[in-house]
Amino acid sequence: MSGASLLQLFFSGLTIGSIYALIAVGFVVTFSVTGILNLAQGEFAAVGALTAASLHMHGAALWVSVLAGTAAAVLLGIVMERAVIRPARRIDLLSVVIITIGVDIVFRGAALMIWGADPLTLAPFTDRPPLHLGGATLDWQTVWTVAISGVFFVALIWFFRTYQGKAVRAAVMNHTAARIVGIRPSRLSFYAFAVSAGLGGLAGTIVAPITGATYDMGLMLGLKAFVAAVIGGLNNAPAAVLGGLLVGLLEAFTAGLISSDYRDAITFIVLLLMLFVRPSGLFGRTAGKRV
Question: Long-range contacts for 166-173 (Cβ within 8 Å, ≥24 apart)?
Fold first, then answer.
């Protein structure tokens, strides 16, 4: 395979890896603040993509559609946290995880009823000819994907250096001590679900111009992002970003060098190996016991 072909595979992996990374960071934010593994995370991406594509196909401006799609995902995350997660917070975490699986199924069924099974399309963010680098083609949507993801990752790292970010970490380590100094863990849970849903919705609007928007797209996006989060470490957001990029590149090179039939299998084989060899992830930090 030529160097240009390898570079093309790299661009493809970088694109989808950035999407996985955004959703994976949503997993990490929710898990770090609440201790809950929200397996409905991928559905936020589906809702964001479907809402944006539907509005744009009915005449709304592109950026209005993207913002509305992201806002719809945030609203869905807030509703989920208040209506489902908050009432169930006193039961064991395994039961809450099972509840999120049920929420995932409900969201996907509702999306099928609202938008149907036919894929929807969303226009690319920039309507220009692709760039040509080293014999490979770089689509402008790829540039947007990497740029937007990078901005949000930097913003997230900055946030955890602020007072509010330190308050989040304090609440994670010790809920009782956090309440004594005026930090409300329940409010942090609200914000965590809103932020993670927004990241998922944004990822869906970014990937929709590339793959289209379908009612079941969130299932595979969520699973791949979960693999990325596990590879990086469920308590380390920057590492989850690297995990997303690794999964994207692994998929792209597997499809290009071996066969696309093995793309998904290879990803989940890596997940199993990580769970057996290093459950905390390649870059995961050992966390203290929650009290």
Answer: 168/32, 168/33, 168/192, 171/33, 172/32, 172/33, 172/35, 172/287, 172/290, 173/288, 173/290
